[in-house]
Design goal:
The chain is of the alpha/beta class. The chain contains six helices and nine strands. The protein folds into two domains: 103 residues, Formyl transferase, N-terminal domain (Rossmann fold, 3-Layer(aba) Sandwich), CATH 3.40.50.170; 108 residues, Rossmann fold. Helix content is 31%, strand content 24%. The structure holds 5-O-phosphono-beta-D-ribofuranosylamine (GRF).
């Protein structure tokens, strides 16, 4: 089993967590999921993780006086699990600057937009209200400000004129499930490094870009 241990932090459904667990089953995947941590004991994803025999832990944020104390409890558990990378996957708590600093460049997040556009919540509704033709998703290193930090991987997703927030979210989620494992692979293999506020990737061939929405014919 791969020696590069990761933890996944969830608060809910955990479909990105499931995608990472699935990817890590492949023999050539360079990371193993050592821990799934949730701030809510009713997070659906916990059952999925347990069914896959992944160690889980719940640390309820309500049990702590403040954000710093809660984050410190998480740090203790994460350090004890010896993880090299923490993946936020629908983790619905803001993290303290101390936590972000402690895990700087070892903490990544997935967000359902092409950052830096559409940070924050209700992203799909806001994209539809704005009328953008192309949305997408982003995996990025975490910095203290919400949905900010060096970008590792993005995928573009065209938006249909009859999309609802739900249909758009589903189409973007499919791509989230592809790019999150890819980002973890790049990091675990040492092929993505932060440099000057950005991520330097080892050279690779650009995919052919031919996405125009609406199509030309
Ligand atoms: C995803 O859309 C992710 O981009 C956002 O929260 C959602 C979590 O979904 N940060 P899931 O729990 O991974 O299914």
């Amino acid at each position: 089993m791969a020696g590069f241990k990761i933890a996944i932090l969830i608060s809910g459904r955990g479909s990105n967590m499931a995608a990472l667990i699935e990817a890590a089953k492949a023999e050539d995947f360079p990371a193993q999921v050592a821990l799934v941590l949730s701030n809510r004991e009713d997070a659906q994803g916990l059952a999925t993780a347990r069914a896959a025999n992944i160690p889980t832990q719940v640390i309820k944020h309500g049990d702590f006086e403040g954000r710093e104390a809660f984050d410190a409890a998480m740090t203790e558990v994460l350090a004890a699990a010896d993880v090299r990378l923490i993946c936020l996957a629908g983790f619905m708590r803001l993290l303290s600057p101390e936590f972000c600093q402690r895990w700087r460049d070892s903490l990544i997040n997935i967000h359902p937009s092409l950052l830096p556009a559409f940070k924050g919540l209700n992203v799909h509704e806001r994209m539809l209200e704005t009328g953008v033709r192309i949305g997408g998703c982003t995996v990025h290193y975490v910095r203290p400000a919400m949905d900010e930090g060096p970008i590792i991987v993005q995928a573009a997703v065209p938006i249909a004129s009859d999309d609802t927030p739900d249909t758009l979210a589903a189409r973007i989620l499919e791509q989230e499930h592809r790019i999150y494992p890819l980002a973890v692979r790049l990091i675990a293999e040492g092929r993505a490094r932060t440099a000057g506020g950005m991520v330097a990737l080892d050279s690779f061939e650009l995919p052919e870009i031919r996405l125009i929405n609406p199509p030309t014919q």
